[in-house]
Amino acid sequence: MLEQLLIFTRGGLILWSCKELGNALKGSPIDTLIRSCLLEERSGAASYNYDAPGASYSLKWIFHNDLGLVFVAVYQRILHLLYVEDLLAAVKREFSQVYDPSRMVYRDFDEVFKQLKIEAEARAEDLKKSNPVVVNGNRKSQVTWKGDGSEGKKNGAGGGGGGGLKNDGDGKNGIKSESDRFVVANGNSANGNNNNGSNLKSNGGNVSVNDKDNDSLNNGAFDVNRLQKKVRNKGGNGKKTDSVVSKAEPKKLVKKNRVWDEKPKETKLDFTDKVDVDRDADLDRKVDYLAKEQGESMMDKDEILSSDSEDEEEDGDDAGKNSNKPDAKKKGWFSSMFQSIAGKANLEKSDLEPALKALKDRLMTKNVAEEIAEKLCESVAASLEGKKLASFTRISSTVHTAMEEALVRILTPRRSIDILRDVHAAKEQRKPYVVVFVGVNGVGKSTNLAKVAYWLQQHNVNVMMAACDTFRSGAVEQLRTHARRLQIPIFEKGYEKDPAIVAKEAIQEASRNGSDVVLVDTAGRMQDNEPLMRALSKLIYLNNPDLVLFVGEALVGNDAVDQLSKFNQKLADLASSPTPRLIDGILLTKFDTIDDKVGAALSMVYISGAPVMFVGCGQSYTDLKKLNVKSIVKTLLK
Amino acid sequence: MQELDQWKEQISHLLNVANDHIREIPTDQLYAAAAIAVFTTLLLLLLRFFKRSKPNTIVLTGLSGSGKTVLFYQLRDGSTHQGTVTSMEPNEDTFILHGETTKKGKIKPVHIVDVPGHSRLRPKLDEYLPQAAGTVFVVDALDFLPNCRAASEYLYDLLTKGSVVRKKIPLLILCNKTDKVTAHTKEFICRQLEKEIDKLRVSRSAVSDADVTNEFTLGVPGEPFSFKQCSNTVITADASGLTGEISQLEEFIRQHVKP
């Protein structure tokens, strides 16, 4: 059952909540949703899962950007409620009609909601009865269907050739029917669906007629029209089979159609009709449902259908484009200027798309991982859709400012990045502050460890290094050299020791000799290296450091996502405690080598949620900086 | 090109006509018109200048969950309606305080802005501070100790902002949720905040050689920090947003935005 449905403003005032549902929510799912999802530019996602002791909720939301309203539905995760999205959309539609910014109480909406809920539930019930297979949300089914359709097309095109070749040699039944099918699909995608019958005819000819014809068929590379001619020219025997098969084929077509209708239940057909009649809005749903069927069954004739429908879609699209283009040209600069002065009514997704695409490309040229650029654009689109465009602004500039705000929001650290403050706090508790440097090979862990040590030393903090890279030869010596140059004590145990034990001893040593900070150097490891990741997880679990610093180079592109997410994932998976330690902060190295391609900073922060604490930007000990959010954002959008 | 020439001709013709028309008007009338135009622009500029010199904005800040939005609606409508959730956008409105609606006479409305406390939204604060007549830093007195450090860091950032120091914007530390029994007293909270800020002073001044800096340092070097050392006035008060116990807040607002 639905646990709660809330309507609130973006300012945070609850306008209406469902009183009759009235179940007290455990924990505060709504606040958590806002803080960790909507404010983190993840609002493009479909749903959010919230776990509290004794409850696990799923939350779905929808924005009304023009009025600045948010609609959130909360339900138990174990129940796959089909009607939630539908209900939210309906509530949004109805509520936006009664909404008045100066009004705060909407008692009378209770009745409307009750009605909407009953309707939505009934629709979901119908859908369930008609097709028990549909469990997923509409969006997903659509996607799978599309994929299948294109695959089917490919199959048809590729398999047609294969089928033809096989036909050459023998005339076994199975292969015959296979070639039938493929040629049908092929012919369809080539010719469109207007001459199904003749295609089938030609098929019949193809199958029944002997080797000679097949040869010519192969030579002709499936020119169906030519084939038809040939078949017709042949006459006699060929024609007879022609007519026979053409009779059989349409029958088959109908049969196939029936098969996928009959599959679930006898009464199903009636139901869909009913639903269809019931409501106009259900038309969409029905289409989705059909699509789902096609995606699931992968039956022969489905390929025809899907390719047909796709063709139609494409046709429709083409037509739309064709009709739109002259329009756009006709409009010209005057109307666009007029629009910019008057302000556009409401932004739609199609209006935003070109601007967002340009922005995404720009982000990607700045080395932002594609996945992240995509997600960001989705989130910005979600925040702008339905908004009124202010006068004297263009869409591109509106999108630009929205993106800028989003970027600033992401890069602004969520937790304090004042390490010195933390160090002092640890000092008061008389225990050393432990920092573990992790990262892949060759990103500059040891070098930047030395830089951090130097910086801490400058501020009168007693630092100690721990050489826990017991894997790569020369690592301990490298660290020893840094330690000697900086006059910092170093704790080392040579190679071939368990790094976790070395770190433990180092921390004990530090608390003995009164060091305030222990900087632990670890071996570089690729994120996929299971044994090494396990060792790292053990090190972190055993020593419980105050800060796990991920060292990543700014040169990295799409791999940044993989590195950070895998590191986090592995740390979480391999930890033996229920509350695993994850990456707390990021040290971005080689920042001086990338010019304006600063995208790695954004990718890393977005994927991990951890702030960039230091930026390494040179070879000497002094080349350690803090991230300047404003300049990064400026560079990203330049 | 031909069209362009045609247009040019038309325009010159129109100009000629206009010139002739102006010559027909007596000169003194012309002067009068010019004088009126100059006078009105001056008046508008003056009005704007006066408006700007007397800001009437009060900014509500504080950590997420300290009760700013509730206070905002208490001030405006005298009710919390049906509760609030975490804000995603600032609430702002210009109104006469709810507690003063019964008073007679003309009252100057106050512009109150409730800036979300979520750390990702803090950059918004910089937009409102330059026009502020006063800021209110809301502290959750009930759940104070776990959030003490975060609150004092935010407060430190606020107190060292260039616009706050330069304009000496007065600050009210408002201890919210004092209706609850286990709430801390304002004296205790004040003392804890001072202690924390004192520590922050050391670490933050160390950070300043990096390129993100607070423009100003706080307090007198060598002495433990107290709010008295700030260049702007810092006072503390109690309030309870839920029960509507906000008289001290209203007093502060009226002190800095004269009715």
UniProtKB/TrEMBL annotation, chain A:
Residues 183-209 have a biased composition (Low complexity). It is a peripheral membrane protein. Residues 155-166 have a biased composition (Gly residues). One of its GO terms (biological process) is SRP-dependent cotranslational protein targeting to membrane. Transmembrane segments: none annotated. One of its GO terms (cellular component) is signal recognition particle receptor complex. Its main location: endoplasmic reticulum. InterPro entries: AAA+_ATPase, Longin-like_dom_sf, P-loop_NTPase, Sig_recog_particle_rcpt_asu_N, Signal_recog_particl_SRP54_hlx, SRP/SRP_N, SRP54_GTPase_dom, SRP54_N_sf. GO terms for molecular function: GTP binding; GTPase activity; signal recognition particle binding. It holds the Pfam family SRP54. Residues 135-250, 290-330 are annotated as: Disordered. Signal peptide: none annotated. The keyword Transcription regulation does not apply. It comes from the Eukaryota. Keywords: Endoplasmic reticulum, GTP-binding, Membrane, Nucleotide-binding, Receptor. Residues 308-317 have a biased composition (Acidic residues). Residues 611-624 form the SRP54-type proteins GTP-binding domain. Residues 167-181, 290-304, 318-330 have a biased composition (Basic and acidic residues). It is found in: Endoplasmic reticulum membrane. PANTHER family: SIGNAL RECOGNITION PARTICLE RECEPTOR SUBUNIT ALPHA. Belongs to the GTP-binding SRP family. This is SRP54-type proteins GTP-binding domain-containing protein. It comes from Pisum sativum.
Automatic annotation (TrEMBL), chain B:
One of its GO terms (biological process) is protein localization to Golgi apparatus. Pfam families: SRPRB. It is a single-pass membrane protein. The chain crosses the membrane at residues 30-50. It comes from Pisum sativum. Belongs to the small GTPase superfamily. Arf family. GO terms for cellular component: endoplasmic reticulum membrane; Golgi apparatus. GO terms for molecular function: GTP binding; GTPase activity. This is Signal recognition particle receptor subunit beta. The keyword Mitochondrion does not apply. Keywords: Endoplasmic reticulum, ER-Golgi transport, GTP-binding, Lipoprotein, Membrane, Myristate, Nucleotide-binding, Protein transport, Receptor, Transmembrane, Transmembrane helix, Transport. InterPro entries: P-loop_NTPase (IPR027417), Small_GTPase_ARF (IPR024156), SRP_receptor_beta_su (IPR019009). It comes from the Eukaryota. It is found in: Endoplasmic reticulum membrane. Its main location: endoplasmic reticulum.
